């Protein structure tokens, strides 16, 4: 009987998630972004992968919003963690992403939080950066996500902008 109650509570919690807010993300002038280049591979494919993963992260964040709200994001610039620099081997040059403390991630985007009636609840421009990232930390060595620091930066922005707001 107790197990059924726990399972029922878990299913009930999942059902609330299904009715959460949504996000719509657009990417403006991607070729002019500060740094969204691959160290290896095709540039278009890499850009699409980065945009898809960051769009997915915005959607996960928006799921924390009330169900009748939609977050609209227009990304205008991305500067990924690190810098792509050439390395020279025996027969050819290759590229590698080098990460130093001064190469922190940055992003610029316009945002608008919309109600279901189409009214803007909150809007603005965001210029976010994660200057405090610690690439040498245990967490970064254990991570499997190439965009760990960018997602961490966006989560902090979201929490400060929409979740941890003082009552007005």
Name its key features.
168 residues; four-stranded mixed beta sheet; two-stranded antiparallel sheet; 4 helices; 6 strands; 34% helix; 28% strand; disordered N terminus
Concise description?
This protein has 168 residues and is α+β, with helices and mostly antiparallel strands. The protein has helices spanning 2-17, 43-62, 138-142, 148-163; strands at 22-27, 70-79, 83-88, 93-98, 106-114, 120-129.
Summarize the structure in words.
Helix 2 runs parallel beside helix 4 (148-163). The radius of gyration is 19 Å and the shape is elongated. The protein has one domain. The chain is built from 4 helices and 6 strands; from the N terminus they run H-E-H-E-E-E-E-E-H-H. It has a 4-stranded mixed sheet with strand order 1-2-5-6, with helices on one face. It has a two-stranded antiparallel ribbon with strand order 3-4. The chain has helices spanning 2-17, 43-62, 138-142, 148-163; strands spanning 22-27, 70-79, 83-88, 93-98, 106-114, 120-129. The protein is of the alpha+beta class and 168 residues long.
Helices and strands in order:
Blueprint: H1 2-17, E1 22-27, H2 43-62, E2 70-79, E3 83-88, E4 93-98, E5 106-114, E6 120-129, H3 138-142, H4 148-163
Parallel strand pairs: 1-2
Antiparallel strand pairs: 2-5, 3-4, 5-6
Helix pairs in contact: 2-4
Overall shape: it is: elongated
The radius of gyration computed from the alpha-carbon positions, rounded to a whole number of angstroms, is 19 Å
User: Which strand-content bin applies to the residues?
Assistant: 25-35%
Mean pLDDT, rounded to whole units?
Answer: 79
Sheet with the most strands, sense and barrel status = 4 strands, mixed
- Label the structural class: alpha+beta
Number of strands: 6
What is the strand arrangement across the widest sheet?
1-2-5-6
Spans of 5+ residues with little confidence (pLDDT < 50)?
1-19
> Portion of residues in helices?
25-40%
Query: So how many helices?
Result: 4
Topology as H/E string? HEHEEEEEHH
Number of domains: 1
CA distance, first residue to last residue: 44 Å
């Amino acid at each position: 009987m107790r197990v059924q109650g726990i399972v029922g509570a878990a299913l009930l919690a999942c059902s609330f998630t299904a009715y959460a807010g949504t996000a719509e993300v657009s990417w403006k002038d991607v070729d002019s972004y500060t740094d969204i280049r691959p160290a290896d591979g095709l540039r278009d494919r890499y850009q699409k992968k980065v945009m898809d993963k960051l769009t997915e992260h915005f959607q996960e964040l928006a799921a924390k919003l009330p169900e009748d709200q939609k977050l609209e994001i227009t990304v205008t610039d991305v500067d990924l963690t690190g810098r792509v620099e050439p390395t020279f081997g025996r027969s050819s040059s290759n590229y590698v992403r080098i990460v130093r403390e001064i190469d922190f991630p940055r992003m610029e985007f316009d945002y608008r939080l919309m109600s279901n009636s189409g009214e803007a609840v909150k809007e603005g421009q965001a210029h976010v950066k994660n200057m405090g990232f610690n690439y040498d930390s245990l967490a970064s060595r254990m991570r499997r996500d190439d965009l760990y620091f960018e997602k961490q930066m966006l989560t902090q922005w979201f929490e400060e902008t929409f979740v941890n707001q003082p009552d007005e």
